[in-house]
Amino acid sequence: MNPGVRVKTFKIDGLDVAGREDQTVLDVATEHGIPIPTMCHLEGLTSVGACRLCLVEVVGRSRLLPACVTPVEEGMAVVTNSERLQNYRRMLLEMLFVEGNHICAVCVSNGHCELQGLAQTLGVTHVHFPYHYPDRPVDASHSRFVVDHDRCVMCTRCVRVCNEVEGAHTWDVMGNGANVRVVTDLNEAWGRSETCTGCGKCVHVCPTGALFEKGHSVAEMLKKRQFLPYLTAMRRRQ
Fold first, then answer.
1. 7-81 maps to CATH 3.30.2130.10
2. Cβ atoms of residues 190 and 196 within 8 Å
């Protein structure tokens, strides 16, 4: 441990824990085997707190805080599982379902989808909001990969892995509100991108079936993300 980094002691769900001052609540919870649901967070990438599924309660604060970007503080008391949190998380998950076209039975990532897995874990069997039925484009212009914007949950993992790990800066975010979506280059078709290396890292970090490889069956859509912790460890060692 860096001798210049101080250690903070606090509680998570009544358990006494300790973490470095440069760690987040999610970091420490993960180290202690305390589950907190996430969608946009992925080890090896910077955290952005976009999905808000990792919301936790901090005693003494009225608003909920995203665990992935909330730094640890001395003496804080964190609650990761309460009826209030469960209701918020289910509501957020339902909103992700209705804002896109997530029809699991015909999705290439059926059985290997984090959105589907979280729905099962949190007990979301139906939604209480009207479906938007968006009609966003499918870009199959790339020789190997496809992006289905209807299944994108705007976690921006593809943007971050392309920027931070591959260094190609192919992916970015365009628009706002209901019209926001990820794009390649300056909103060019993926197949015409002049920056894409074809490495597939963006595909393997996608939590849903928004990015997938052509010619692969459902059973083959298991994502391979082992490269992220490895590359992160190598960067820290250097």
1. no
2. yes
